[in-house]
Structure formats: C-alpha cells, structure tokens
Amino acid sequence: MFRTDTCGQLRMTDVDREVVLSGWVQRVRKMGGMTFIDLRDRYGITQLVFNQEVDAALCETANHIGREYVIQVKGVVKERYSKNANIPTGDIEIIVSELTILSTSDTPPFTIEDESDGGDDLRMQYRFLDLRRDCVRKNLELRHKLAFEVRRFLDSENFLEIETPILIKSTPEGARDFVVPSRMNPGEFYALPQSPQTFKQLLMVSGFDRYFQIAKCFRDEDLRADRQPEFTQIDCEMSFVEQEDVLNIFENMTKHVFKAIKGIEFEGNFPRMTWHDAMKYYGSDKPDIRFEMKFVELKDLTEGKNFVVFDSVPYVGGICAKGCAAYTRKQIDELTEFVKRPQVGAKGLVYVKCEEGGTYKSSVDKFYSQEDLKLWAERFDAQPGDLLLILAGETSKTRKALCELRLEMGNRLGLRDKNVFAPLWIIDFPLLEWDDETQRYYAMHHPFTSPKPEDIALLDSNPGAVRANAYDMVFNGVELGGGSIRIHDSALQDKMFEILGFTQEQAHYQFGFLMDAFKYGAPPHGGLAFGLDRFVSLLAGLDSIRDCIAFPKNNSGRDTMSGAPSIIDDAQLKELQIKLDLQA
Amino acid sequence: MFRTDTCGQLRMTDVDREVVLSGWVQRVRKMGGMTFIDLRDRYGITQLVFNQEVDAALCETANHIGREYVIQVKGVVKERYSKNANIPTGDIEIIVSELTILSTSDTPPFTIEDESDGGDDLRMQYRFLDLRRDCVRKNLELRHKLAFEVRRFLDSENFLEIETPILIKSTPEGARDFVVPSRMNPGEFYALPQSPQTFKQLLMVSGFDRYFQIAKCFRDEDLRADRQPEFTQIDCEMSFVEQEDVLNIFENMTKHVFKAIKGIEFEGNFPRMTWHDAMKYYGSDKPDIRFEMKFVELKDLTEGKNFVVFDSVPYVGGICAKGCAAYTRKQIDELTEFVKRPQVGAKGLVYVKCEEGGTYKSSVDKFYSQEDLKLWAERFDAQPGDLLLILAGETSKTRKALCELRLEMGNRLGLRDKNVFAPLWIIDFPLLEWDDETQRYYAMHHPFTSPKPEDIALLDSNPGAVRANAYDMVFNGVELGGGSIRIHDSALQDKMFEILGFTQEQAHYQFGFLMDAFKYGAPPHGGLAFGLDRFVSLLAGLDSIRDCIAFPKNNSGRDTMSGAPSIIDDAQLKELQIKLDLQA
C-alpha cells in the first residue's frame, strides 16, 4: 500500500495517527537540526519533519532529496508548532520514521509554481511538468466538473448522449476538413467532423427526441490564439421544439452549471437582443454587456457644418466615457493610436470633453459650435465630466472599430471584471450573408438553419432581409454557444441549397443522405452547441482556450512535446496508396 | 408548442385533460366508423381515435395518413373501452379534435418493428430508419446510461475525466494507425490514437492521480464481425497503486453499473484465475465460467496402448458433457464435423459414453479396455449417462479446439444464458509472447507493462517465464477490460525496449517524450481500459458490437448510409501536398 491518506487530507483530528503518504517533493528546507519537506500531490501539501537528533541517517537521506522526487514516508501526525493558515493541512505535520525514494528527478527546466520562470514554449515542450502546476491542474479539474454537471443536467432532462462517428464523409462546405486515407478503400478518404451537425439531425429523424454529445470536432484552419485544430463541443438537438423551448432548456443548463461550479445564481431570465440591435448599439454580434456605454449615432446632428470628414461618410457614431473629461492630451493620443491600428482600422478619433461649467471642448470645435456640441452631448445623455469619443466612416467597419474602442475603454475603466458574468441571448440573426468577392450568399450559420416562417416570402425577393430562427448565447463578449431551429421540410431545404448556389448534384452528393432521411417523416427540430473549451475558459477566467486543454497544439498545429505531426514510413504510405507531392 | 405530453406519458389520472401530442404514425386501423392511429415517439405509443360521425372531414384526413408520417394532434384523454395491458398508456386513448401533418413519409423500405423484414445491408443504408426500431433504440439508451453511471461512479471516486488529443504522433508498434496529413506541416502526418496509453501515463507523471476518459480509439485493421475501425474505451489510470487497488476499484465500478442498469448484485468478490489455469482448464484467456465443464488431461492414462493417434502427440484432453451419453450417431458426427472445421482445426473427435450399467462405449474401444476407460471416467468424475469428448494434438492448438467444443456443448446444453453474468479476473499473464515467424518476443499487453517484481531476475535468463502485473476482466467468455501496473522506472523501461528488439533510437523516436517524462519523478501507476462497446453488448445481450453503435461501419470500413469514405477534390490533395498512388 503506497499511502493511507493523501497530502490534502490530514487535520488536527488525525493527530497521533500513524500514516503513510506518497507524493512529490515541492521543497526541502533545513533549519537547525531539522529538515522540512513539503510533500505535494493533487489534493494538497503536507509538511514532513526529519529530526537529526532522533534519526541522523534518515535526516541525511532527506537532505539529499531534490525537488520533484517521488517519495513515500511513514510517520506520525503531530500538531505543528507554527501553523500555516494558508493551507488546509497547515495545522499538522508528519514526524517521519521511514522514507522510500520511489523515483528521482532531474532538475526541472522551470519552477513548478503558479508563477513559473518557464516561458510558453519551454512549458509546452515539457507539458507533463507544466501540468503539475496548481493553476493549470485547476483548469482541468474545472473542465471535468463542467462536463460532468452538463451531463448530469441533460440526463435529468431526458437527453441521451449518443456518439456519432469521427471517420465521416468529407463535406467541403465550411472550413477545411482534415482527411484520413482509407487503406481498405484505396483512393478514398474519410474526413474528421467539423461538428456532428448532420448526424444529430439524422438522430432527430430517427426519433431520439433529445440528443447531446460532448464531442471532439476538427477544423484544418490557420490557427489563431484562440483556435485549436481539435476542440470540444457540447452538442445538443431536440425534436418538436420551437426556438423558445431551446432557449429555455439551455438557459437552465447554463444556470445549473454556474450554480454548481461558481455558486452563482442569475436572477430572472437572461436578457435578449436582436442581432440588429447588437450591431447598432455594440458593433458586434457578441457584445460585452458587463458595462453599458452603448453606441450613439450622430450623423443627422453633424451634417451641413462643412466638416467634410463627417459629411462624406454614411456613419458617425460614438460612445460616452463616463468621468473621462479630464483625460490628458497623451491619453487621447493613445486612444487615437489605438483606433488607427490596422486591426481596428479607423482613420482618426474625434473627442468632446463635457466640462464642468456646461461647456464643451472638442477636436472639431472649429466646425461645431457649443450649441451643436450640446445637442450631441444631450443625445449621449452625457454629464459634465464625461468624454465623448466619436468615429466616422463606412457603417459596418466603423461600428467594428467603435466596438474595439468601447472594449478598450471598458478595460481602462475596470468595467470588465472577470468575476462578473453577463449573459445575453442574441436572436434574429440574418439567414444569409452576402459575399462581395464570390458574389453569392453564404449561410450565416449553416445551410440547415430555418428562416423565420414570416420571412419565408422574402427568400425570393430579398434574401438578405430574411431573418433566421438562430440564436447565440453570449457571455462577457464571448460567444459561448449558438444554434438554430432547422429546416425539416425537403422542399424548403432544396430552395436553401439553390439560394446558396449548390447545384442539385452537389447538394445530393454532399448531403443526399440527410435529404433522403427527410423524406421519411422528419420532426420539427432544433438545437445548439456550446464550445466547451470557451465555457471552461470563461469560468476559469483564462485568456486562451489552450490553458484548459491538457495537451494543446501550438499555432503551427504542432505538439512540441510528443513531436506530432511527424514523417511516416514509406511502407505505410505505400499501404495507403498515396505518396508525398511536396511543392518546392 | 408542439406537445403538452409525450406518447409514453398519459395515464388514467389524465382522463378528460386536453392534450397536444406529436409523433410518428406507427399504424392506422379502420374499424366501422372509427379510425385508430398508434402514435409513436421515443417514450411510447398512444392510441388516437377519430370518429366519422363526430367529424367526418377530420376522419377522412386521418384515413389518408401513411406509416411514419409525423403528425401533431390536439384532443381529450379518455378511458379506453378495450384496454391494452401490454403498454403503459394502454388504459387511455385520445379523442382527436385537431390534426396537423408535420411531415409526410415515403413508404419505408422495411418495417419499423423489432422483427423487421429488412436485411442487414438495407437497414444499414437506411440506418436513420433502422434506429427508429425499439430494439435498436434501447441499445443506445442503455449505452447512454452505462456511460453516465460509469462517470458518476468514477467522479465519486475522485477520478478526473481528461480529454487527450485525437491528432497524435504515429507510433507504428501494435496495430496499424490511421493517419492524417498535416497541411500546415507538409510531408508530415498525425495519427489517430489506438488508445490514450502514453497520454494517460503522462498524466500520472503530471500528478493527476486518478484519470479516466470515455475515449474514441482507432485501429486500421481488417475488420471482423466484432471489430470497428473506431471504438470506444473507458480508459482509466491511477497513481500510487498496486494491482490489488486497481482490481478493487474496477470491480466496484462494474458492480455499480450492474446494480444501476440491470438491478443485479454480485455476492462477494469476483473469482480470480491465473492465465496459466485459464489455458489449462478452459483453453482460453477469457473462459466462459457460466458453466463448469473444465478440461481434464488424459495423456498419462492413454499411453502404451498402441493407439498411435494419442501416443504421437503431447496433449490428450477432454470435457465431460453431463447427461449426453444418449447422443445419437448423428449428433456425434455433427460434433466431429464441428471440431474438424478449419476455424476449430482438430483432426478428429474421440468419445466415451458412460452407460447406465457402469460400462463404457467408445470410438476407441479397440485400443482401450473397459478398465482403461473407467480410469478416464474417474478422472472426469463422470457419472453414468455422461459423455466424454476427447481431442488430441499439439498442446495449445488442441486446447483452443477443445475450448470451441466446450462452448459449443455449452450452447447445445443451454448453459450460456444471456441473462446470467459470470465475472472473472484473469491474472498473472505472461509478460512476453514469443513469435516464431519474426523470432522475437512481443509484449503480450504493451511495452509499458510491469513484470512482477519477483520475476524481474528472469528477464535475462528466461524472458518467456516472466509474469506481468497484468489483468483482464472477463464476463461470459468476453474480455470486457484489461490493464496492468506500468513500469515507472526508466532503467527497467529501457531494458524492456531492448528485450522487445527496439534500438535505442527507435525507442527514443517513438516514446522519447514518455521516457523523458519518467526522468522527472514518475509515480508508481497502473490502470485498465474497458471496451465500452463490448460492455454495452454484454448488458444488452447483443451478438455484435455493431448493434450498440449509432452509425457503424461495415466490414469494408464503409458507412453505406453517408457514403464514407469517398473521393476528395484534387485541390484538397494539392493543398495537403500528397497524391494518389493507386496500385493497379
């Protein structure tokens, strides 16, 4: 038996018990004739004591133990002389009588502490050591708990978890598929699923009524900080439901999770906002509503004053930064630099300071009188001491830039506390998005999303105006999940494919099995998928989903620890009947 | 709102309620002026009634509804005149006042009933319809419940579910890997995991202490009836444990699952048998111990009687079929044909009938006297009326054949009841298996399996005799799970690689990251993995794991419903920098 207790378990009530513990050596300290070792495992840290006077040989052995050795000790629990109130085991220590070294350790390439001295790359190469750090382990513990609570909730609501295949048919619409050559079917390939979308819809046709799956999904995209080639979805689908039913269930699921994991209870229903309002007031389909600072539009108030910058563009709008009228020239310049960064893309920034005496100071007061500026301020409902920040340009670009500026001001004003959680449903998404480059419509969500019944008539006359029965759940400016009511009618689905520019053959080749299924009695259905990685990141307050994944890939899709991907044998290629075709 | 209740929900206590139901039309019957529809969903079947006299138009619509249409009805719950005691809703029916057809259905290619008229291939092509059958749906419901109960148990035992990657480094030892070309790293490939083995060991090195994962695994093997290219494991690992700890936890998990799902409680501990005894008495490392019928060895009793068939071989052994002495010539011939089938491979079958008067009748009584046969019978502990069935030949081949014969007799005698569950631990596996063809040892489990400490000395002198700390859980002749205590010592692991014929370079290239990890304090650890598909099949009494997988592949690795695998675009191949190299 390697242990009677874990390193997080012993308390004053255990005093005088003989115990056996095993774990890792966090640190070794010598003080006078005593040696102290902090012994660590997943559950905590326990202090071990070796006394030179009592057993010099044992103490000598202990003195030669290094960091991260794995040891086993036998000893008696005693009350500590100087207690450590910071840890649950801080009242006791173990007077060690036997010591076994189970494994030695080379000196780790970085310190195994929350604030490690190891850089990102080094920690990724030695991920097995990085995972020993408390802060990293806690993220994975939270991930386990989240997944378990989600399952507990959905099970109690009669959802069945059903595994759908990982080796599926390639359907190139959407992002790039990862593909897998089939040895038994030479020249043919499986794809890895970007999501279980078609399978979950088939399960509805099969009558499973309520399905979910915590499912691995794959996208061969160029990776950004917040993307991984494989990621995990909480994928759900329900039959005989309308949008309202779906929103209710998953709002309740989310509340259950927050209660179980963070002890947070939300009052009342999550607020809802149309996609149109989200774009108008926040310039984003995932607004961070932990703080107000809505966009205010000024175009009508700015016209005809010979300020060509405003007169020549369709959109003038801004935000009101409460209490920032005292910003210095330097601070204003910083903000101007911020909006002019290529990622934000504004041409410049106009400000109006609302001063205490009811006067206004602005970068455009050559063109606009105090009365003009007063009208602006009134529209913002600005008070003396506030700062108006105004951008102008093409509508959707300017809104995006203003969104960035708003978030930046939120950061500067400390309005984006990671411990505050602001949920929001975005509803009434457009069904279609026009792409100028390819001169065609694309499905904003995917080709199976149902238009709102009252908008179906517009499909022919004004496809861009058709709203979808689609919805996203947003928290703190992050899209946590999204979904839609699906089309369950073959004829309407055919029409959608037509609008999306699929030929009948293409549609049949890619989605024929789903279309066939719809001919045999498809129930009305809809669903939603949450990004599990994002959900964990939100709850844990992480900046990157990478921090809640045990073995993530880097931006080149590489696992630097194991060395994946790697070259494979010629024999293997030959068996698969493929060869490399490397471009110089 | 599509429904107020499901089709399995309404009872006498609901009589006179107005309800809305939605579901599939199971069947339509006309009787006099009445039309009855059985409306089906996942939860049950409810009878709908349409009365020609009350609403002729509605009844007429109902009469034109076909099988598998999806409809919605509004009506009032009434007590039935002739009740159906076979279904929970059999006391009531719905007098329908409103009817909406939500989807029509073509005539299904086979009947949606437990005993369907559709063949295997047809049902696989229309799997979405096959899944509507009660018996198929129940398997997936059981699968959900099993996975959930496993998670509930392991969570309560402090196991953390941690996702390990699907895109990993290829390690060709073992079965064939599926590989995935990396677009971002041209010429390099990921592999899909055959199991999370190395990652779960890394997690132990990382201090996660207790890990599990219900994980998809992949093997590119030629498929047999009970193999799928992707399958699911309940994969577990623990630190600071000895074999006994692992057996205890997973025996308890199995008991929990049987209790929760089947209401079955096992008394006492699961029996244990050494691998050596399993081979000697059952000719298999996964004996079906629902019935006794152990092998009895006779070589010493048969020698020197001029029966060259027995004298020329190392092994003579048999089984005693209780009460089968009255088998006819035809029955004995059938058994002889059975053992001579190439899959079984025996040359012939010797029988001894133990007759009522204490005499013996045998196919070899030319060579053996009544006294000889009496000695045989005594060793079998045979009684008058029993039938001895004896095979002879090379030891391990003959044991395998005798195993098949034993199972066949178990079937014939009705001793293999699917509702009886006989658990068994097989322990003390050999560490290594000699392969005549390649003239080298292979790891019986995998290269990380720990030898028994007391056998380590034999590694140099007699590797074949070394026993492993490895164990399998067997139920009813099926290996449900298996695992081992792992090597956690770099030096011992190096030695194992050497014995297995790895060069240092090969070992380092394939498993370097695990070996590196072991240098930084590896805890003693061990684990086990269950085949989830097999576990479900066992509980559901299925003949093939395919029946508990929502969307299985056929023996060519093909999903005939969706058409995977399939050819992919040239552009896609080009992007991946590979090309086809089809052998004529």
Describe the structure.
- The structure is a homodimer of 584-residue chains.
- Chain A has 584 residues and is of the alpha+beta class.
- Chain A has three domains: 12-103, OB fold (Dihydrolipoamide Acetyltransferase, E2P) (Beta Barrel); 136-273 and 422-549, Bira Bifunctional Protein, Domain 2 (BirA Bifunctional Protein, domain 2), CATH 3.30.930.10; 291-412, 2-Layer Sandwich (Gyrase A, domain 2), CATH 3.30.1360.
- Chain A contains 17 helices and 23 strands.
- Chain A has helices at residues 56-63, 120-125, 127-130, 134-156, 197-205, 243-262, 275-282, 299-302, 308-311, 329-340, 370-380, 395-412, 458-461, 490-499, 504-518, 532-540, 570-576, and strands at residues 18-31, 34-41, 44-51, 70-79, 92-103, 160-161, 179-181, 189-191, 210-218, 230-239, 272-274, 296-297, 315-321, 350-354, 360-362, 387-393, 423-427, 432-435, 440-443, 470-475, 478-485, 525-531, 578-580.
- In chain A, the strands form five sheets. In chain A, strands 6-9-10-22-21-20-17-11 form an eight-stranded mixed sheet, sandwiched between helices.
- In chain A, helix 4 packs across helix 16.
- The longest helix of chain A has 23 residues, at 134-156.
- Chain A is globular and about 90 Å long.
- The model of chain A has no long low-confidence stretch (mean pLDDT 95).
- Chains A and B meet through strand 1, helix 3, helix 4, strand 6 and strand 7 of A and strand 1, helix 3, helix 4, strand 6 and strand 7 of B.
- Strand 23 (578-580) of chain A pairs antiparallel with strand 23 of chain B, so a sheet runs across the interface.
